[in-house]
Amino acid sequence: MLAHTRVLSVERIRIVACPGRVLAADLVAPFALPTDPVSAVDGYAVHAADAGRTLRIAGESAAGNPFDGSIQEGVALRILTGGVVPDGADCVAMLEEVTLDGERVTMPPTLRAGTNVHRPGDDLRAGDMLVSKGTRLGPAELGLAAAVGCAELDVYKRPRVALMSTGNELVEVGGILQRGKIFDSNRWALLAALNEAGADVNLLANAPDEAEALRGLVTHALRTADVLVTSGGVSVGTHDLIKPLLESLGEVHVGRVKLKPGKPFTFATTPDGKVAFGLPGFPVSSLVTFEVFVRPALLKMQGSAQLQRPTLPVRLAFDASPNVDRTEYHRVTLRRDGSELVATSTGSQSSSRLMSLAGANALVRVPPGGQGIKRGTVVEALILSLS
Ligand code: AMP
Ligand code: MG
Question: What is the pTM of this model?
Fold first, then answer.
């Protein structure tokens, strides 16, 4: 699936729109920071040789307002945090360590050159790699870009995703449930998952299990979006119309997976390079297959260097029984026990039971057949979140 997914093009956008976007070119420091020697404290800029002496105060250097001139021995300059240390001075005596007497100030008995001076390049040097291509821009990354003056950044485009639920049983939230109907929950669950993955979502209305209507909606969606995500209609029932529809519009590369939950998951491409993910209708199946297959593809499209969730070793607090021939993604809640993470099952793993994902912060892969995984075993779990 990743091989069929292309990286989107690059756009230059204003920094205000950059949080969460993926950087498309290495950001290298064009100059050093700080640019000048600056004081790390409020105090007096002096020569270290003047330790213990009483000095005349020649003026002031405040943040943003440097002192014009240099400082000779026998003279002190009042300086505030962030103020430029003047030529001549080699250290700053902290305000708390000096004795003030009108326009004269007495230095502490010992001073060392360099003390309390933040030297040029201490924070970063010209040519340093600040943020590498493929990094999602979070607080530190955006702060670094701004610190070196970038008003605009080159980022990958966000994948435009058309999102649609299918099924005659679906009712819009806010509507009235009649016998045999259910509220459409998948679209909202998937909207949250898509937002987290950086997608630009076009939320489409629910589609009925009716071939011609579905064809019209899907064709239009694939014209206007990079990615189509549907839920429902991919099993083998007579009302399951997504797979044959995608077959008629392009090529279905995956029509079934040995995964629990999520067996009928479907992946297709169109001749013009669009990708379509047909997720199963059961709420847990749609979210787990999103997590395992769709999210990495969306991250690849955005040029992200990191496509997969991190894993951590966890100790199982339960016996995870295996499925006969499908890998199971068991949903677990993690807690700390000393230096270990302990994984507790979220209970019944039925694919209709959305509560098995609520509060789950990791997925444990249980291989098919055999003994499953015995309680007490340490396995690598896919970490969804640690909060
Ligand atoms: P399907 O894959 O279309 O056979 O759907 C399987 C089951 O998933 C349905 O019988 C519903 O119980 C449930 N389902 C399908 N679509 C949704 C949806 N959008 N929101 C909540 N549950 C759904
Ligand atoms: Mg259905």
Answer: 0.95
